[in-house]
Write a structure and sequence with these properties.
The chain is α+β, with helices and mostly antiparallel strands. 19% of the residues lie in helices and 33% in strands. The strands form 9 sheets. Strands 10, 12, 13, 15, 16, 17, 18, 19, 20, 21, 34 and 35 form a 12-stranded antiparallel sheet that branches. Strands 5-6-7-8-9 form a 5-stranded antiparallel sheet, with no helix packed on it. The protein has a 5-stranded antiparallel sheet with strand order 23-22-25-32-28.
């Protein structure tokens, strides 16, 4: 592409020849695409993108004279092979960004070889581009997979398709395409629900406000949600994004060329990837009319509230988003009623990819997308099964902005072992591929299946945004008693303060239940709390930040402090656990325990945040004890050799003598061979503490081999020790170095189970000094907040059990009511 653009701009033949050289290789009958039927090294979605980037350069250099007539025929033959494959594939009626990428590649190939019949087939035929638009685009302009990146990418393919059709007298830039009224995202829908796999729902929820969709809808959909920097919060499988050009340079440049909508100008100005092909030399200055306002979109399911404080800079405005609406199928998250985003000062505390294990890892659907990773109230440590939800309140006011969401959903354990990518594979094979061992489960659910469903639980969340904080009222009701946990996922835990706080216990995991994704939350400290509590957090951006294991973008350097006040319930259990971040420590290993030259214990497993192995060996009469550890090649190393990270430890390694004394290896004269001793005893390979499955081991012995192709050994002479037993525990430290900025899962749980769950939570994001003096709840519907400037605000929710929900704020100063506002309406 770059070489072709360079030729188009300079007419220097060397750039055209560079493109031709690649094309000659690519079309070769013996070693090229006609033989291999595979262009790129990734999946078929990238194959479509790959062919887009072949067709465009070929079109640009077509008349350059660098290709012979036979080579032109070879290119046409190759492009037709790809088009024939796609022609059959897209008749299934499935709608996705994958297929659209492949279809767009075929459409470009057809144009490049001047086959208008094939071009129109892929643009307008069964399963083609316009079918995807009609069936895959929500009424509110969001692509059905509910992700910022996919929405932008899909819009780019449509605007470029429209651009390419104009020379043929076909203008789809302003066409209204009538929509189907089935709720399934499928162009061959036959009135039956599609099979639900792994808890994913491919539905259009949220209703329709118009009977058509058009290409411009996709560009307009995101504009109201951009902050003053042009940054969009993450939704589903996406982190914070700027709407910069995806795959084809600045998409909004081309959209502005045809629509001349001034709301696109700020996006273009914010775009650092200026496209020289479709860019604009000069654009007028324009400030978006949306940038300070609240907004919602019912199909994708996002409602955003912004504080309306007068005489404050825009960066001081609080922006908070609540999640509802359609699920999003493969890229959907199980998070209706979640606080999806809070931004202030150009800093974001959370996005749905705050932890990310990649698509191939079982954690993708066993943990990452699930409810335990979200900022919401969860039921029985399970996953919220998708169902239609509704917005009951949306109010834009002066002192308060408010929204209320309701869903009625069953809860279940997540798909056991995550998503099945190959129908013939087993969970054991996937775990081995991921180098991450899971506990053995007797009578486990089938691989990839949800299990142990609850009855439908009514769940409502009311969110209000004031000038200084968020207030959340939560209401849940089931037919039987349930355990409710109000969760937040925040970096930089500083501590909890409350009227009465007692440290109760420490557990290595949030739960040992191997069916729940809560098992992946480790190193959990449990507290008993009475009265209003405040949990404090501080995330560092810029200098001194530690974003290892998290995905986030576009944060202004500085601090984002957050205080989470729990005003109701008055009595609670509070849990602070370590979120299951991915730091790359998935280490397949082989170990042996050898006594006097004979192997007494051995095993193989994938050491990571949730696996360890223990052994106890009889040493009576023994003369020597040897511990052997060897790295085994990972799945990726077998294809792409690379050194596995150093992170293996004997967390426990001690002998017990006949008189009952316990002697740690770290205190004995142990001979090390081929062992990377790192920072020494009790320190991980970055100098932090050693934890294995959430337990700290101050006497841990580093045991990663220096040469991974050989065993690393620790040998102990037992002569004269009168040893009778050896105890060992081996595993990986998955959270290296300083852990001060590790993300925490913070849970508030009522002391007893109940049919009804009620919460009042105040969340204050601030930079330097908190504005809140105290928070007190009068009951489950009313909370009083006293501020440092002398104001007292009393906020109450009304009719939360019903649909006609309202929120009232009364503000006092020196005992005098100075403002009274009722948030109502939809």
């Amino acid at each position: 592409m770059s070489a072709a653009y360079a030729y188009a701009l300079t007419e220097d033949i060397k750039y055209a020849e560079k493109v031709a050289t690649f094309l000659r290789y690519f079309i070769d009958d013996e070693i090229g695409y006609p033989k291999k039927k595979k262009g790129c090294s990734q999946s078929y979605v990238q194959e479509g993108h790959f062919f887009q980037h072949l067709a465009i350069p070929y079109d640009i250099i077509h008349q350059a004279g660098v290709l012979t007539p036979e080579e032109h025929k070879g290119i046409e033959k190759t492009f037709r092979i790809y088009m024939d494959i796609l022609d059959k594939h897209i008749h299934q009626g499935h709608i996705s960004n994958w297929l659209l990428s492949e279809i767009t590649g075929a459409f470009y190939c057809a144009l490049a070889i001047q086959d208008i019949e094939r071009a129109l087939r892929f643009a307008f035929g069964m399963g083609g581009s316009i079918h995807h638009l009609k069936y895959g685009l929500f009424n509110d302009g969001w692509w059905h997979e509910c992700s910022v990146g996919y929405n932008t990418w899909v819009s780019s393919m449509y605007i470029h398709t429209a651009h390419a059709l104009l020379p043929f007298g076909i203008n789809i830039l302003h066409t209204h395409f009538p929509i189907p009224f089935n709720d399934e995202v499928n162009s061959t829908y036959n009135g039956e629900d599609a099979k639900v796999r792994f808890g994913m729902y491919n539905k259009k929820w949220g209703g329709n406000r118009k009977n058509y969709v058009c290409i411009k809808d996709m560009f307009d959909a995101t504009i109201p949600f951009l902050d003053y920097r042009g940054v969009m919060f993450g939704i589903s499988d996406s982190d914070e994004r700027k709407l910069e050009g995806v795959h084809f340079g600045s998409t909004f440049d081309l959209a502005y060329r045809y629509y001349k909508d001034p709301e696109y100008i700020p996006v273009i100005h914010q775009n650092v990837n200026v496209d020289p092909i479709f860019g604009h030399a000069e654009l007028p200055e324009y400030r978006s009319s949306y940038v300070k306002n609240n907004a919602y979109a019912d199909n994708v399911g996002i409602a955003m509230l912004r504080s309306q404080t007068e005489n404050r800079e825009q960066k001081d405005q609080i922006q908070a988003v609540i999640r509802y609406g359609s699920h999003g199928y493969a890229h959907g998250h199980f998070d209706r009623t979640e606080v999806l985003s809070i931004m202030r000062y150009g800093r974001s505390f959370f996005n749905p990819e705050h932890v990310w294990w990649g698509y191939p890892h079982f954690m993708y659907k066993f943990y990452v997308q699930n409810s335990m990773t979200k900022n919401m109230v969860v039921v029985d440590e399970k996953m919220q099964v998708p169902s239609d939800s509704k917005r009951l309140l949306f109010y834009s006011g002066k002192a308060i902005q408010a929204v209320a969401i309701e869903t009625n959903s069953k809860w279940s354990y997540p798909p056991y072992g995550g998503m099945i990518y190959n129908e013939t594979e087993t969970l054991e094979e996937r775990s081995k591929m991921n180098a991450s061992s899971l506990p053995e489960v007797q009578a486990a659910p089938p691989y990839g299946e949800l299990s142990d469903f609850t009855e439908p639980i009514t769940q409502k969340r009311v969110m209000g945004v004031t000038d200084d904080y968020l207030v959340l009222f939560d209401y849940l009701k089931g037919e039987t008693e349930h355990q409710y946990d109000s969760l937040f996922q925040i970096k930089g835990f500083k501590g909890i303060k409350t009227d009465t706080l007692g440290e109760w216990k420490h557990t290595s995991q949030f739960t040992e239940n191997p069916l729940s994704d809560a098992q992946f939350i480790t190193d959990c400290q449990w507290y008993e709390a009475a009265g209003t509590s405040v949990a404090s957090f501080e995330t560092i951006f810029g200098e001194g930040e530690d974003m290892r294991g998290t995905r986030t973008a576009h944060n202004t350097p500085g601090l984002l402090k957050m205080d989470v006040h729990t005003a109701w319930p008055k009595q609670s259990i509070q849990i602070v656990g370590r979120t299951a971040e991915d730091h790359g420590y998935t280490i397949p290993l082989e170990y042996q325990v050898e006594v006097d030259g004979k192997v007494k214990a051995e095993g193989e497993f994938g050491a990571w945040l949730l696996s360890e192995r223990k052994c106890e060996i009889d040493l009576q009469g023994a003369r020597a004890l040897t511990l052997r550890v060897k790295n085994k090649p990972t799945y990726n190393e077998q294809k792409y050799p690379q050194k596995t990270k150093q992170g293996l430890f004997w967390g426990e390694a001690y002998v017990i003598t006949a008189d009952g004394r316990l002697k740690n290896f770290c205190d004995l004269d142990v001979v090390y061979e081929n062992i990377d001793r790192g920072f020494g005893i009790g320190k991980d390979y970055e100098g932090g503490r050693v934890t294995i499955v959430g337990n700290e081991y101050p006497a841990a012995i580093p045991t990663s081999p220096v040469d991974h192709d050989k065993f690393g050994t620790l040998t102990l002479d037992l002569s004269g020790m009168n040893a009778v037993r050896f105890v060992g525990l081996i595993g990986a430290d998955a959270f290296p170095g300083d852990e001060a900025q590790r993300r925490k899962t913070y849970a508030v749980r009522p002391k007893t189970k109940d049919k009804i769950g009620r919460y009042i939570t105040i969340v204050e994001p601030f930079e330097t000094e908190s504005m809140i003096v105290s928070v007190q709840a009068a009951d489950a519907n009313t909370v009083e907040v006293i501020l440092k400037d002398g104001r007292t605000q009393i906020i109450s929710v009304n009719q939360i059990e019903h649909d006609e929900i309202t929120v009232n704020i009364m503000e006092y100063k020196n005992g005098i009511l100075i403002h009274n506002e009722l948030a109502c309406g939809r």
